[in-house]
Each structure stands twice: as structure tokens, then as C-alpha cells.
Design goal:
Blueprint: H1 6-14, E1 19-20, H2 24-42, H3 48-58, E2 61-62, E3 67-68, E4 72-74, E5 80-82, E6 87-88, E7 92-95, E8 100-102, E9 107-108, E10 113-115, E11 117-119, H4 123-127, E12 130-133, E13 136-138, E14 143-144, E15 149-150, E16 155-156, E17 161-162, E18 167-168, E19 176-180, E20 183-188
Parallel strand pairs: 2-5, 3-6, 4-7, 5-8, 6-9, 7-10, 8-13, 9-14, 10-15, 13-16, 14-17, 15-18, 17-19
Antiparallel strand pairs: 1-12, 11-12, 19-20
Helix pairs in contact: 2-3
């Protein structure tokens, strides 16, 4: 029996099936994306146009004015869809064997990891490359603080905040503050969280 093509393997992963995910073709795709990420990370921060151009080449979709600081790393890139006005701090890692959708106006703190891939627990099966994947979805206006890990299959609802250092193992409802390892719902975010501010013109320093 012939070995599945990379496209067949990726389709099976996208469908949540267990697959033998190691192949020469998959390896070439991973190396190609790694090379693009390496080039992206070497571009000077003030060369915004070239950084944005290459980020669009790496990702499947990218909205208006994405700002992703180096270093940035991902597996395939084409499974990543970014909305408008993303701000991602240093050290974002996305293992996108399944789809990763990031909404509009999302803030991502430093050293955040987003994983879609799961390997077999038994060592001999893991070494043979048995794996499956589940998509991750991050809604509009979400703030993911520093050193957060998001695991496969998680959905984070609109306006949610994930506190620093959290490990998100299950979905988080919209407008919810979640924290911990594993992350749990702390409370809802409400109008009571509004911060009264004087206008910039009237502030003194």
C-alpha cells in the first residue's frame, strides 16, 4: 500500500483522526515553514512592510495590520488564520497541524504556545509517529497574557482574558477571566471593570 500524501495526512488530522504523521513530504513542508519563520525573525523590527509581507506568506489568512514580534514559530502556517489588528508579543509558538483561528483585536503576551497536536501515549506508538490534531479558536477582543499554553480543541470566547501562566485545557466562555493550571473560570468581565480615566489632554505627569 502506498504512503498517504501530505495532503491526505493533513486532511485526516483536520478530521480529528489518528494517523501515522511522519513522512518525507511532511518533513519538507515543516522545513520550508521553519525556513520562512527563520527569515521572518531576521527582519529588522522597523521594516514593518517586509515583516508583514512574509507573515502573509507564512499564514493561510492575515487581516489588516498584524503585529507579530520575533521570535515567531509555527509548523505549517497555512492552517493559521489571523484577524485584524493582532498584537502578538515575543515568543509566540503555534503548532498548527489543525486550524488555528485568531479573531480581531486579539492581544497575545510573550511566550505563548498554541498546540493543536496530540501524540500517542505509548512510547512505541509515539515513536512510530501516531498522532491526531484538534483545532483551536480564539475569539475577537481576547487577551492572552504571558506564558500561557493553549491545548488542542480549545475555544476561547469573545472578550475573554487568560491570566499569565495559565494552561488552557478546555474552552473558555466569552467575557470571562480564566486562570490557573488547568485554567478555570474566575469570574465574568462586566461593566464594573470599566476604568475611569481623564482625557490625555488633562493629565499631568
Amino acid at each position: 500500500m502506498s504512503q498517504p500524501t501530505a495532503r491526505q495526512l493533513l486532511n485526516s488530522l483536520e478530521n480529528g483522526e489518528w494517523v501515522y504523521g511522519i513522512s518525507e513530504e511532511i518533513g519538507r513542508l515543516l522545513t520550508d515553514t521553519e525556513s520562512k519563520c527563520h527569515r521572518f525573525n531576521q527582519i529588522a523590527p522597523d521594516n514593518r512592510s517586509e515583516r508583514e509581507r512574509l507573515l502573509r506568506e507564512i499564514c493561510g489568512e492575515a487581516g489588516c495590520r498584524p503585529l507579530v514580534h520575533s521570535p515567531f514559530r509555527c509548523d505549517f502556517g497555512f492552517n493559521i488564520a489571523i484577524g485584524d489588528n493582532l498584537i502578538a508579543n515575543y515568543g509566540l509558538t503555534i503548532l498548527d497541524e489543525a486550524k488555528v483561528r485568531i479573531g480581531n483585536r486579539v492581544f497575545i503576551g510573550p511566550n505563548v504556545s498554541i498546540f493543536t497536536i496530540t501524540h500517542a501515549l505509548l512510547p512505541e506508538q509515539r515513536a512510530a509517529g501516531i498522532m491526531k490534531a484538534s483545532p483551536v479558536s480564539i475569539g475577537d477582543d481576547v487577551w492572552i497574557c504571558g506564558n500561557v499554553t493553549i491545548l488542542p480543541g480549545v475555544e476561547i470566547g469573545r472578550g475573554a482574558v487568560i491570566a499569565a501562566g495559565s494552561v488552557v485545557t478546555k474552552s473558555v466562555p466569552e467575557m470571562t477571566l480564566a486562570a490557573g493550571n488547568p485554567a478555570r473560570e474566575i469570574r465574568k468581565i462586566t461593566d464594573g471593570d470599566f476604568i475611569e480615566m481623564s482625557s490625555p489632554e488633562t493629565q499631568s505627569y
